[in-house]
Amino acid sequence: MYYSKQFILSFSFLLSLPIIFFIFIAPHVFPSPPTESLIPISDEISDQTLFSSAAASSTSLSHLSSGYPNPKLKIAFLFLTNSDLHFSPIWEKFFSNHPKSLYNVYVHADPFVNITRPQKDSVFANAFISNAKRTARASPTLISATRRLLATAFLDDPANTYFAVLSQYCVPLHSFGYVYASLLESPTFDKTDPDPNPGLRGVRVVYRTFIELISDEPRLWKRYNARGRYAMLPEVPFEKFRVGSQFFVMTRRHALLTIKDRVLWRKFKLPCYRSDACYPEEHYFPTLLNMKDPEGCTGYTLTQVNWTGTVKGHPYTYRPKEVVPELIKRLRRSSHSGSYLFARKFTPDCLKPLLAIADSVIFRD
């Protein structure tokens, strides 16, 4: 009887070891991923309904998806924000005197943040999409928000041909006319792949997405393993993994591809164990397009960003005293395209000096 009790006690102790390990030791050895970055199931269901509707609508829009020449092709400007649209006045000037038949504006504003809504006569007045959800930096919520914008714009207007994703800290570097002509008409704007056969009236026949597909970033391996050593396999092998700016200009064809994706999204929505290397919004879109259609991408962005003096993953931020004509001219310079079209990041108090040189410099191409 004594040995029997001793055996039971020993056996019970052995059984309890895994429990002790996972409760008291494992959390320190294997820290839990941040739960705040997880996508609520209600948001997932809502998004999938939206994405399915957008994908289903694509069958009747093939002539636009392929870039068929059309005098009413539009650029959809998609603003992703969790604060006031600080530079809306300069964007108002950017859009002024140009017909709505050439563009649309959409804003995804975090509904949990108190944001000042524009005046009724503003181009942004009716631009706020109703299905916006909570967002957080360095989390898959920014992927969801961008896909939501793409799907909403895709459904809203079949003439939306290019989709420019921007932040509230982005400003234009050129007039609307220059931007429109560069994207939809100029056969030489993209220096990496000039179109030798422009279509009717000079409209481009072949469109490419302007997005970075960086494969030689020094911390690429650490970023790839942010969710765990084997978390991305087998769907996303390391050699296919890419990084790039979360702000890009995407074709309608690629917008549809992004909206329809389910496989890569299941990987990139996973929570991270390494928060210092986890920027899903900078990984998902470049990796998806690199795996699906790298030849349809330029490999560079049209939003100029200064990464010198980076602070906690944020780019260099321009101050009011720096906003002079020479800065705008310097920000425009690009070795890949005719010019950068947008730039970030500016402090909100840069608005006044930007407006002061808007007509004489920024919108004077």
From TrEMBL:
Taxonomic superkingdom: Eukaryota
Cellular-component GO terms for this entry: membrane
Subcellular location: Membrane
Pfam families: Branch
Membrane-traversing stretches: 7-30
Keywords of the record: Glycoprotein, Glycosyltransferase, Membrane, Transferase, Transmembrane, Transmembrane helix
Topology in membrane: Single-pass type II membrane protein
Gene Ontology MF annotations: glycosyltransferase activity
Cross-referenced InterPro entries: BC10-like, Glyco_trans_14
Entry-linked PANTHER family: CORE-2/I-BRANCHING BETA-1,6-N-ACETYLGLUCOSAMINYLTRANSFERASE FAMILY PROTEIN-RELATED (PTHR31042), CORE-2_I-BRANCHING BETA-1,6-N-ACETYLGLUCOSAMINYLTRANSFERASE FAMILY PROTEIN (PTHR31042:SF140)
Name this polypeptide is given: Core-2/I-branching beta-1,6-N-acetylglucosaminyltransferase family protein
Species of origin: Eruca vesicaria subsp. sativa (Garden rocket)
